[in-house]
Input
Amino acid sequence: TNYFAVSSRFGTPDDFKKLVDEAHGLGLLVLIDIVHSYASADEMVGLSLFDGSNDCYFHSGKRGHHKYWGTRMFKYDDVDVLHFLLSNLSWWVTEYKIDGFQFHSLSSMLYTHNGFSTFTGAIEEYCNQYVDKDALIYLILANEMLHELHPDIITIAEDATYYPGLCEPTTQGGLGFDYWANLSIPEMWLWHLENVPEREWSMNKIMKVLISSNHHMLSYVENHNQSISGRKSFAEIILNTGMCSSGSVDDDLIFKASSLLKIIKLITFTTSGGAYLNFMGNEFAHPKRVEFPMSSNEYSFHLACRQWELLDKGVHKHIFNFDKDIMSLDENERVTSRGSLNVHHCDDTNMV
Output
């Protein structure tokens, strides 16, 4: 609900500035997940009913609420809303010196149906009465402002529908993002892991998802969507979590499972179209999902953590070392910046 500082649960604004400075000193960039696609419906500490009216920053009526989540939806045709959101972006860069943004859940704002529709890729699905043209204009303005004032800034679009022109220059009719996060890749891996024995995986189907539209693509094996309540982390699916914390990589079962996980990591990394991302804990095969305190788990913090002590244990240490080797490969060979792939052979029979 606070747009101009991190939650006080994690520290003060000065604490965050120190964190950013420390990261920069280590040669790391700091990007934040910015949520301008919707807002909290909280009327006590949020923007909802901020001035007592229902439409101060948001649409009135049904359009003012997300179709399924109940969150408030900004009215991007309002000049004050544009000023507020653009100033919010500028604040994070000028005050906290962050290096970029991932724009969260763009499909929620790009369409009046909030992205909850069947998409086949037909151009008509992106050019109809359900597209919020004012939201498009805001994203163009945001990218133009950020890249004009801060040439080294990085902007990433998180859009499950892959709106055409996400990463094309605004001068060419695009939205101006530097990268787009391909949410279909982790969903593809999850579907295979849960539904298809590994000996029956189709290499053609896998490669189709991995390399389709991989221009400026940010790839990852799994993200927060695969780790929310009721689902499992990939390590939890692939590895027997009762054994993996103490299991040795010499154990046949653990060796086979960890090898499968490493193959998934390697093929996703080498086919990425520009960038690769680890969700926290994936780099060492964290055995449990993330689950925040909520009513369904009686507000437990049990899964709202990462077990960093596993970094030096058994199969987790082995997979972590493999992940570091992948990063070194990119540093030395520039794998993710080589451009589009040319896949010359794909054989389902021999799984090659």
